[in-house]
Amino acid sequence: MLxxxxxxxxxxxxxxxxxxxxxxxxxxxxxxxxxxxxVDISHAVPPQDLDAGAxxxxxxxxxxxxxxxxxxxxxxxxxxxxxxxxxxxxDCYWLAPDxxxxxxxxxxxxxxxxxxxxxxxxxLQPESRTFHGRDLLAPVAAWxxxxxxxxxxxxxxxxxxxxxxxxxxxxxxxxxxDHYGNLITxxxxxxxxxxxxxxxxxxxHATYGDVAQGELLAYVGSFGLLEVARNGGSAAQAxxxxxxxxxxxxxx
Length: 252
Known about the structure:
- By secondary structure, the chain is of the alpha+beta class.
- It has helices at 21-32, 50-60, 103-106, 132-146, 235-239; strands at residues 8-13, 37-42, 69-73, 84-89, 92-97, 111-116, 174-177, 183-185, 194-197, 200-203, 216-220, 226-230, 247-250.
- The strands form three sheets. A six-stranded mixed sheet has the order 2-1-3-5-4-6, sandwiched between helices. It has a four-stranded antiparallel sheet with strand order 7-8-12-11.
């Protein structure tokens, strides 16, 4: 059973805020359906960084009302023959290029239906080969969210979407660095007493205030993943590491 669309659309892109791209994409949604509600997730995904975009998509799973339409645009292959996907998964809908951006959404058997958006069938003629977010994904999101089109009408089923790399799979490592310089790993809240990273042993605590100002700590963060932080500062700067840095969980 597919969820009833909620009228809510979220928007995740690598567009930044210096240019009008985000605004005109929202304008295209509102032209298609004036009552659509739009929530910005982030527009600061590093340009063409599919791994970072996949982490942001993972962070949305289970965090929004049933029937939300999530739109993600990180699209190095825009204008090529890559497909645009519509996915029903986790009680929501997901629209994105077929390039691995939805790796976490498609992981396991969470996806109940995957479709390729059929622009011709929907009467869409892209104005540009390099802005499918505005010309195709925006109106489709608005129509789906407000009930003009049902999910199954968006296009044919896709048996082989690009699965990409689930951000939480693979060797223990840093998978995201947030605005505060916190190092988010792909380790869940498993038993242990410390993390080792960049040659340093970082003890596990409950929250920042458990250590003195300027000290490092490891803790279970808001995504349910182990993170490394510096109370009052940036762990990324203190340890001089970036995304992909290996981590080791030390046993209790």
